[in-house]
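This entry is set out below.
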Amino acid sequence: MARNLVNLEGVSKAFDIRPLLTKVSIGVSEGDRIGIVGRNGAGKSTLMKIIAGIENADEGRVTQGNSVRVGMLSQVDVADKSATVGDLVIGDRAKHEWASDPKIREVFTGLFGGFDDHLFERVFVTLSGGEKRRVGLAKLLIDELDLIMLDEPTNHLDVEGVAWLAQHLNVRRDLAVLVVTHDRWFLDAVTDRTWEVVGGVLEEYDGGYSAYVLAKAERARQASAMDARRNALIRKELAWLRRGAPAQTVKPKFRVDAANELISSEPAPRDKSELLKFALNRLGRTVLEYQHAKITAGDKELISELTWNIGPGDRFGIVGINGAGKTTLMRTMAAELDVAAGKLVTGITVKIAFLTQHLDELDPTWRVLEAVENVANHIEIGKGRTLSASQLCERLGFDRDGQWTPVGDLSGGEKRRLQLTRLLMDSPNVLLLDEPTNDFDIETLTELEDLLDSFGGTLIVISHDRYFLERVCDRFVGLLGDGQLRDLPRGVDQYLEDRERALKGGPTQGQKKVSSAQTERLLKKDLARVERQIEKAREKLAILKSEQSEASSNADRLIEIALNIATVESELAQREEEWLEITVQLDS
């Protein structure tokens, strides 16, 4: 039987007069893997601090087992000004005691890409935020602990680092882990129980994030008491997960028949043909086209030769190692930087919005709603639908009261959400997002994904949040630091496999560069795809016309079939036009 580590009995905690936790009773046992979810400010971090003994409860009791060793990675990294990395991670142990320790070498290789004395000698306060975070993680993983609590552990880690951390934790099954994170892929990969902090209480679910979504949908179906908007969003994400989302890595541990009923008529998250039609109307045929381009940062060559056509309605995710040039490449798209050689052609109707990792300066006296309405009062989101500035603010986490908050009083994460809200309000047709998910809670991320589902333009995303990438993007490219931008037909999985091969000195699968040398192969692949789509559209059209003749006496059915025929014929015409363009490029 698993040893009990920590128990909470009737624990309550308030911030000023606002209750965060009310009569919470919960326990953590040896080997538990628990993800904690909830809106920002709901009390997730406070709950972990109470379990760790960092904060005291206002009432109730917290008991910890004898000789239980607990460690916590918080969102604030502090240390003595003169402390080195070695002081913090190794302590006063002699070098010969730890230098040959395979566990220490593995942790530092996984988090820092290598193991050397210079790293141990660096003064902690001189490190970047990301380096401090990795040092804190390294200490927790090296120390002999029974329970570790991780508050946003994937911040400042790239996709590769997140995958390594998940794999490392999954090997150490005796270690209990509590984690607060908005990284839903990581939750699915690591956790097998979920706690949701909502309204001061703690709801328990079996399974990781995917199982939590399924269970929440089932509870909503049974209770019929959820807000209609939240219920619709949960159904939509449930449909995404049950259709085989790449992030889903664990089987739900409960009956899902009733949950499946919720999505029996739920459409795919995005109507791709409708969005493409909308994008073509807004953008025309040319969006961004790199022709034999060289991308540099100062004297450093990042991409040697790039031929890449980004079309209307394309949704690309860019992954790659730190320093390979992801942000620099995106800055050339936004015309903040010029290509060092070659050419970048930008369509004449292109209107770009670029969410950077840096916060734009805003008038601190503005209210949140005022800052958004200074851009526009309404935004069109397709199919004749519009959102007001206030509605868009609400969907991105600013409630009615929060919309009257002065900008100067916002946290860094809230300012980033405001920046994104202002960008969307400007009705761009090309959206460039550089690490957009930082400081967003899961519910706000779900709202953002829902908005992006209806975005009728071209979308380019850089993110370490694998779930978000796979949720909003259709195609992926990667930078492995070898001067090439590679097509990744199998997405993030292929990128991680290619990186592993590259580190071992072997050839990568992703030999398909997005460059002039491989343009023909990419065009042929696109041609084959379009030909399959044309064949399917013609088959569907034949079936509809057969049904049309059979329904000659049913007026309502005839109208419905006629509308379907018009939609399919329109899509077929687009595919045939796309086929013609590709064949012209192949012949040129």
